[in-house]
Amino acid sequence: MYAARLATALKQRANLEIFGMGGPQMRAAGVDIVTDYSEVSVVGITEILSHLPSLIRAMRHLVSEAERRKPAFAILTDFPGFHLRLARKLKSRGTKNIYYICPQFWAWRPWRVRIVRRRFAQALCIFPFEEKFFGDAGVPVKFIGHPLVGAVHASLDRETFCREQGLDPQKKLVTVLPGSRAAELRQHLPIIREACQRIHRETEAQFVIAAAPGSNVASLREGWPPDVPVKIVVGQTYNALAAADAAIVSSGTATIEAALLDVPMVVVYRVTPLTAFLAKPLVRTPFFSMVNLIAGKRAVPELIQNDFTADRVAAEILRLLNDQSARDALRRDLAEVRQRLGPPGAVERAAEAILKLLSSAHGNAK
């Protein structure tokens, strides 16, 4: 999503050819996709092992294409386990690297920031505290703001959304964003289903699952108790969030989207026990959700790993549904988070920074 918007902004400003790894949104933006990102989408440490052949194939294909096409710059978006290695290979072949959406090294194996300093000509970061972190390590860095600021809007009001989905606007509505990766759904959905059943018993709430594009809707529907009213919507995440009284959100970008829409939320996440065991010594942050990291405190409840239980999720959601003062306090913190994310126009600022580098390297953008 972020890379597609950047590609669009670049093409609007200069006559560029762009190729790389991505998906349908990047294709729609005019990027020549030589490797589909679905081949390498993976989360966790142990889970990577089964994807190694696909990761290696994707790496070889991208390097081969770079050798053939000889790009001036490579714009790499997050995904450090793959992109740090790709950057080394590309730099040795004369391509300069730009990091767009810097990896969260301040939270996870922070010593890797030294690799960014060695392999990247520019780092573009989207969170305010990242500029100091990367700058202190000697990385040429620019804070551009968050690309979602100014881009997250509901197209329907609550009444219209509920009417179109056959929901009762007079009843409490809880929106669920369970994650998009198969591994996330396996870990999250059974707990969320049980939590929703308990919430429904207490409040007769309705539930909406905002599914990621391309999701298997039938699999998302499986296992829901027949007495729990649940709707699954695809491509209506912002409408589903904006209509919600509260939300259960998988940790990640979705928490920023919920914050921008001012939705009281509970953040959840779980990986396999072995991945959690291996990762624990490497984590260097007091919080997991982006909203809390930006706020610098526990603004939203976050239930991670063993804390992510049906009882805990239900209790936190019921507190938000039933306690106006709790909702008001959370929304005050969300307002502070929105202020810290910077003004709209991050993608455009990134495009200008990249074209400036391109111009200085080649005299003009071509």
Characterization of the model:
The chain is of the alpha/beta class and 366 residues long. It has 16 helices and 12 strands. The protein has a 6-stranded parallel beta sheet with strand order 9-8-7-10-11-12, sandwiched between helices. Strands 3-4-5-6 form a 4-stranded parallel beta sheet, sandwiched between helices. Strand 8, helix 9 and strand 9 (230-234) form a beta-alpha-beta unit. The longest helix has 22 residues, at 48-69. The radius of gyration is 21 Å and the shape is globular.
Short description:
With about 375 residues, this protein is an alpha/beta fold. It is built from 16 helices and 12 strands.
N/C terminus separation: 24 Å
Instruction: Please compute the radius of gyration using only Cα atoms.
Output: 21 Å
Based on secondary structure, the structural category is alpha/beta
What portion of residues belong to β-strands?
15-25%
Order of helices and strands: HEHEHEHEHEHEHEHEHEHEHEHHEHHH
Number of DSSP-assigned strands = 12
Biggest β-sheet, characterized?
6 strands, parallel
Low-confidence stretches: none
Based on Cα principal axes, name the global outline: globular
Share in helix: 40-55%
Average predicted local confidence, pLDDT? 91
Number of helices: 16
Strand order of the largest sheet: 9-8-7-10-11-12
Present the secondary structure layout:
Elements: H1 2-13, E1 19-22, H2 24-28, E2 32-36, H3 48-69, E3 73-77, H4 80-91, E4 96-100, H5 113-119, E5 122-125, H6 128-136, E6 141-143, H7 158-165, E7 173-177, H8 182-203, E8 206-211, H9 217-221, E9 230-234, H10 237-242, E10 246-250, H11 253-260, E11 265-269, H12 273-279, H13 290-295, E12 302-304, H14 310-322, H15 324-340, H16 346-362
Helix pairs in contact: 1-16, 3-4, 8-14
